[in-house]
Design brief:
Two copies of one chain form a homodimer. The first copy, chain A, is an all-alpha fold. Chain A is built from ten helices and two strands. β1 of chain A pairs antiparallel with β2 of chain B, so a sheet runs across the interface. The structure holds a DNA duplex. Chains A, B: This is TetR family transcriptional regulator.
Chain lengths: 214, 214
Amino acid sequence: MDTTQRTDQQRSADRRRRELLEAADRVVLRDGPQASMNAIAAEAGITKPILYRHFGDKGGLYAALAKRHTDALLDSLRAALDAPADRRERVEATLDTYLAAIEARPQVYRFLMHPAEGSQVGDQGFDVGKHSAPLLRRMGEELAQVIEDRLDLGPGSQQLARVWGHGIVGMMHAAGDWWLGERPCSRAELVRSLADLLWGRLAAAGDKVGGPGF
Amino acid sequence: MDTTQRTDQQRSADRRRRELLEAADRVVLRDGPQASMNAIAAEAGITKPILYRHFGDKGGLYAALAKRHTDALLDSLRAALDAPADRRERVEATLDTYLAAIEARPQVYRFLMHPAEGSQVGDQGFDVGKHSAPLLRRMGEELAQVIEDRLDLGPGSQQLARVWGHGIVGMMHAAGDWWLGERPCSRAELVRSLADLLWGRLAAAGDKVGGPGF
DNA sequence: ACTTGCGTGTTACTAGCGGTAACACGAGTG
DNA sequence: CACTCGTGTTACCGCTAGTAACACGCAAGT
């Protein structure tokens, strides 16, 4: 009841929670996102109700799990975005950081973005649809803030920055997802191609064959 | 055994299949993607095993359901992409077509892209993660083909076109998703902002405040 | 020392899901 | 009349998320 005791208990609970999260991480990374609560509990050496006491429901556990990876990724992206270099270099560094992250830990990435990847039957996997969006949204909003803070876009800059933030994040995400699956080129080439796209090479390219408006 | 009879039966089966798909469509659009096979069967006025005989499993039914909407969307996108106009106009028309589609039928869109949106408990919803990707991939590949066919990109054009195809589709998708949720601006403004981004306005913008490399 | 409370853990259960086996009716065919 | 074959059903399995109810241990209060 007194404060010190409460603190002790709280600490112990926090440690337990961390242990449970680490166990969940192992299972999810091994079995994919359709890992059952039973399996996670077993990995942690305890039984289901304890998991539910700590995380409420499966969504809660997933959210806690996702937050760890999400925060880590966002931290490294912020670092790349804040590096002292010119704009194109920073953009390329940020793209490369993101791609390096998903390349280094594809299981984590697939867990965050592609929930029911390995599922085939019952499929009560995590409903990541609900939770992967937040990651993309957070990245979009953060990028929008950076754009608005640092670029002079004239009137309507806030709205423009937000559109661009979400659009660029989506571009990075989709291209990265495709690249991770097919590996059609090196990471550096992908980064360069995307930066070229953002730098207007699409508009600047010439037409290939003659045609009316073409 | 004879051909006419087989044809009759096949026709009847196809009609039945269409009816079932329409019933499934109604249920999914009403109950969200976590609609149960039982509910779909009930809406169609039959029982589960018939559904399974027609579609194999839940994924099969979803795939058939998704294919209808996906094909329709891709058709209208192709039309916009092929319109006789200059490049920027075509890009804007395509973006606008996509956004108009998701704006007009947001339930369909959310079903295709955000599987477990309304789920809260058991959540054995469709695993759209597995099936939404194909839509984005198809759009990316088609766009890549168009880009490669019509633009003169110099050496490495095929790879560049594919990166751009998937990247642009991802940009459109993410921006559209965000826009559909928050409606921060009109559709036309969004289209214009995205086209501006593709036209290199990000690179062309000036810095806002003085700084070393900034 | 005895009881009271509380945190931690368990077993045993419910409700609902996807999916399937086994059976039943109806129509055309030898 | 028997025989198949398509269409439909009921009744079940195994699995899941999530929950009640009970049991141990340990510190505090009297």
